[in-house]
Write a sequence for this structure.
C-alpha cells in the first residue's frame, strides 16, 4: 500500500482470564481509509501483562506497515496508557 491507512492495533486478554499478569493474546488489523481490510493478525502470547499485549499489537501493525511500504498510518487503540505514551504525555 502506498497511500495512507488506518491501523487499529489491539492487545487483549483471553476470555475469562483474571489478574494481571495473566494469559494474554493480541490482535491487530490494518485498513485503508475506505475501511477495506489489508491485513490482520491475532496471536496467543502466553502469560504476560495487559500492557505487554497492547504493545505487541502496536509493534505488529508497525512492522506490517514498514514491510509493506505504508507511507502514513493512523493508529487507533483502546489502551489509554499506550495512547498517552505515544503522545508523549506519560512516560
Amino acid at each position: 500500500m502506498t497511500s495512507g491507512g488506518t491501523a487499529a492495533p489491539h492487545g487483549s486478554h483471553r476470555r475469562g482470564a483474571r489478574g494481571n499478569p495473566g494469559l494474554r493474546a493480541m490482535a491487530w488489523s490494518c485498513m485503508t481509509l475506505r475501511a477495506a481490510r489489508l491485513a490482520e493478525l491475532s496471536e496467543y502470547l502466553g502469560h504476560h501483562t495487559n500492557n505487554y499485549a497492547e504493545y505487541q499489537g502496536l509493534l505488529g501493525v508497525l512492522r506490517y506497515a514498514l514491510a509493506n511500504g505504508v507511507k502514513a498510518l493512523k493508529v487507533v487503540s483502546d489502551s489509554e496508557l499506550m495512547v498517552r505514551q505515544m503522545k508523549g504525555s506519560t512516560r
Summary: The longest strand covers residues 37-48. Residues 22 and 47 are 5 Å apart (CA to CA). The first helix runs from residue 50 to 67.
